């Protein structure tokens, strides 16, 4: 807004009286001057009003455009937010699956280490059993030497030996059962590793297949262009051959016209043979 304009001052009574000696003329002149001043002021007010109206319309148009752009920006922001939420969900899902796979691998490794520990423990027990067996064999040999002197004790030792053998057989069966369990857990670990390798191989295979398909598409596109070039070449050759055939047919017709004095049958046979030769050459 500019500075407030000061309306023109009306003439005073002394100025009007000084300019005319007639009071009526002075009053009329004063009223006319005031009317013109008010008319000019009213015109200025109307001009300012029009200017302010135009400015208000321009500002309203700018406001509407800004509101439309704001709505568009909000829609774009909402779409980007939805895409971001979707990507965040996908990342969370992939992280969860990755954590589950790592947890499964840790569990399988723990089971394998536990199986190795149990196997080592049973190996130690087998060594101890072998030492016991060796001692029992030594006792048996000693008992054989003292067989005649200590027959009764020998019979008791034989019973004890049979009992120990039964225990050894039982231990062997237990060892076989534990070996089966260890083999089972090893198979489980190998199965998990094979599954991971299989998934990796399938991923690499899909990448290679995609590359091969792109290569095949490029090769087929190249062959199509070459075939189109070949078709254009053969079409040109066909047009040339057709023109040659038309010339030959015209020559045959001309030769037929020169042979008009000959009998009809021989002339027709020769014309037919010439046409056949023309078709064969074509």
From TrEMBL:
Ubiquitin conjugation factor E4 core domain mapped to chain residues: 22-116
Signal peptide residues on this chain, from the entry's feature table: none
Sequence ranges of Basic residues compositional bias: 268-282
Domain of life: Eukaryota
Statement: the UniProt record of this protein carries the keyword tRNA processing: no
Entry keyword set: Transferase, Ubl conjugation pathway
Any one Gene Ontology molecular-function term assigned to this protein's record: ubiquitin-ubiquitin ligase activity
Basic and acidic residues: compositionally biased ranges: 61-75
Keyword Transferase part of the UniProt annotation: yes
Region described as Disordered: 56-75, 254-282
BP GO annotations: protein ubiquitination; ubiquitin-dependent protein catabolic process
InterPro entries linked: Ub_conjug_fac_E4_core
Gene Ontology terms: cellular component: ubiquitin ligase complex
Protein's name in the database: Ubiquitin conjugation factor E4 core domain-containing protein
Species, as recorded: Fusarium oxysporum f. sp. radicis-cucumerinum
């Amino acid at each position: 807004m500019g500075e407030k304009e000061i309306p023109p001052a009306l003439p005073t009574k002394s100025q009007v009286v000084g300019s005319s000696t007639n009071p009526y003329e002075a009053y009329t002149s004063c009223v006319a001057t005031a009317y013109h001043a008010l008319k000019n002021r009213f015109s200025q007010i109307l001009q300012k009003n029009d200017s302010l109206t135009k400015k208000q319309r321009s500002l309203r148009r700018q406001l509407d455009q800004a509101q439309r752009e704001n709505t568009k920006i909000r829609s774009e922001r909402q779409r980007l937010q939805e895409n971001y939420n979707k990507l965040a969900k996908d990342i969370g899902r992939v992280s969860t699956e990755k954590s589950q796979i790592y947890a499964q691998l840790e569990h399988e490794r723990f089971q394998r280490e536990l199986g190795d520990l149990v196997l080592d423990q049973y190996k130690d027990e087998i060594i101890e059993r072998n030492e016991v067996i060796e001692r029992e064999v030594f006792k048996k040999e000693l008992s054989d030497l003292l067989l005649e002197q200590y027959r009764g004790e020998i019979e008791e030792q034989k019973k004890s030996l049979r009992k120990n053998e039964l225990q050894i057989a039982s231990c062997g069966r237990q060892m076989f059962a534990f070996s089966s369990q260890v083999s089972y857990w090893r198979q489980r670990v190998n199965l998990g590793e094979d599954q991971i390798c299989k998934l990796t191989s399938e991923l690499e295979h899909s990448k290679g297949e995609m590359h091969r398909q792109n290569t095949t598409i490029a090769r087929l596109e190249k062959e199509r262009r070459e075939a189109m070039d070949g078709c254009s070449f053969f079409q040109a050759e066909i047009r040339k051959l057709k023109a040659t055939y038309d010339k030959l047919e015209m020559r045959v017709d001309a030769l037929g016209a020169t042979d008009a004095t000959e009998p009809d049958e021989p002339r027709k046979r020769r014309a037919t043979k010439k046409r056949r030769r023309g078709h064969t050459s074509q």
